[in-house]
Amino acid sequence: MNRYAIIVSSLLLLQACQPEPLVLKDVPQAESKMVVSTITDGDNTVGVFLTRSFAALEGFPEEDAEILSKYIVQKALVSISGAGQDALLNELYPGFYASDALSLIPGETYAFVAYDNTSGQQITANTAVLEKAFIEELTVTEYPVGDEVFIQVNIRFQDLPGKNYYMVNVSKSDPNSDPSEVVNRDVHTQLIEEDVDEAMIKEEFVAFLRKVVPGDTLRISLAHISPEYYFYLDQVSGNFIGESLLSEPYNYPTNVNGGYGFFNLHEFDRRKVLFGK
């Protein structure tokens, strides 16, 4: 099931649990704004997912596909520039804009601009690419829970100087997928905060992914991320996917001018490993 279908299914489940909306008069509603979700776990692909926020008093969007579609920002003009490069992102999937022509250089700052042709709104953001972290050792083993088999990950990598924040992503690798499939993958994200200088960091965790069986190839990705992005991910990570992508993100930290969400770029060190067998 791709992420767009997951969003639709999630909204239907959430709507079924919602009480009838209260009829309130003369209550000012917040302006609908664009929401940015950065997606950079694809090989050489930098992308963003654009949605629109909606007023809390409206409740969750109805199940009608036409109504749902108004919360996905389509046919927008999206660009990223920095380090002497200018990249116009293509819409590869409804609301998902990506480019594989942008080189990320540590220490450089990149500017993001998105213009929504429908609403006339424009949002901007800036982010700096941090020094890259590298995996030294990596093992994955089976972690059985009842009839399910999950993934035990043991990773070791060199700690960078100072206080740092890291992100490890685990996903199933599909050699037949095209660049747009980056938005469709089931990804487990492990956040790591390290405030003690150590030569090496060792992290052990269990990744819970759907439809992964022994014999599948996994993609393990390590990234050095900013503290602001870490705390943003930490706040949204506990939310249901329907809430995190299509609900009101008013209380989440943001670096987006004129909108919500977070724009961040980082280099990954990636490994592909065979799971089990």
SSE order and pairing:
Blueprint: H1 3-16, E1 34-42, E2 45-52, H2 65-69, E3 77-82, E4 85-88, E5 90-93, E6 96-99, E7 109-115, E8 122-128, E9 135-145, E10 148-158, E11 164-172, E12 187-194, E13 200-207, E14 217-225, H3 227-236, H4 241-246, E15 260-262, E16 268-274
Parallel strand pairs: 1-15
Antiparallel strand pairs: 1-2, 2-6, 3-4, 3-7, 5-6, 7-8, 9-10, 10-13, 11-12, 11-14, 14-16
Describe this structure in words.
The protein is 13% helix and 42% strand. A hairpin with a 2-residue loop joins strand 9 (135-145) and strand 10 (148-158). The radius of gyration is 19 Å and the shape is globular. The longest helix is centred in the N-terminal third of the chain and has 14 residues, at 3-16. The strands form 4 sheets. It has a 5-stranded mixed sheet with strand order 5-6-2-1-15, with no helix packed on it. The chain has a 4-stranded antiparallel sheet with strand order 4-3-7-8, with no helix packed on it. The protein has 4 helices and 16 strands. With 277 residues, it is mainly beta. The two termini are 25 Å apart.
